Amino acid sequence: MEGLFITFEGVEGCGKTTQAKLLYEFLRQKNIECVLTHEPGGTRISEKIREILLDSENGEMVYLTELFLYLASRSQHTFEKIMPSLKSGKVVICDRYFDSTLAYQGEGRNIPKQKVIEINNFATGGLIPHLTFLIDIDVEKGIERIRERKGFDRMEGQNTEFHKRVRGAFLSLARENKERFRIIDGSKSIELIHKEIVNIVLNFI
Ligand SMILES: Nc1ncnc2c1ncn2[C@@H]1O[C@H](COP(=O)(O)OP(=O)(O)OP(=O)(O)O)[C@@H](O)[C@H]1O
Ligand SMILES: [Mg+2]
């Protein structure tokens, strides 16, 4: 594998999409070939699965169905888009990846963590990001930021307690995987966070 696989993680409204896009634009300006993508989604088939996952009318979805749909979306995304891009030497920037599954379905939904890791590795051929930014922020603050968006999707509609457990799970993951994780203070300004991320990525390249 020649490229660089960078993921952005964190609770709703922490700034993942904002920072992923800024990093992508920065690298493009430096003439570094890169791909900006996101989960769930990123390919035609994966986007169809995303619609099922985020539809607030699918309230009866059981947790294992949710888990397998995320993984189905990820398999398609990984093999159709991420791996080929990495093989051709590109930087792949992905807004959420498997740490989100561990945090939301593992910790949030109480599905045994070892099982989630095992089937995730099966679904992705064992692909692990080289660098993961955890943008950490107070759950209420994150929710406050996205409140203006119209309607809550199925995951966003969970209670604050759920999101607090998810935040805790992300922090534990970062502590357990220090070599690839960088924890970023999401309460800083967009510009400051962007600079911090750029510095880390440039050191990594
Ligand atoms: N550091 C920041 N300070 C203040 N506002 C921010 C910051 N970062 C992002 N925002 C704003 O907060 C909102 C949510 O940001 P963004 O969409 O990037 O979060 P996200 O982590 O992708 O959320 P989601 O998990 O819902 O996709 C946006 O309106 C964005 O402009
Ligand atoms: Mg986002």
From TrEMBL:
Gene Ontology terms for molecular function: ATP binding; dTMP kinase activity
Keywords: ATP-binding, Kinase, Nucleotide biosynthesis, Nucleotide-binding, Transferase
InterPro entries: P-loop_NTPase, Thymidylate_kin-like_dom, Thymidylate_kin_CS, Thymidylate_kinase
Domain of life of the native organism: Bacteria
Record-listed E.C. numbers: 2.7.4.9
Family: Belongs to the thymidylate kinase family.
The protein's name: Thymidylate kinase
Source organism of the structure: candidate division TA06 bacterium 34_109
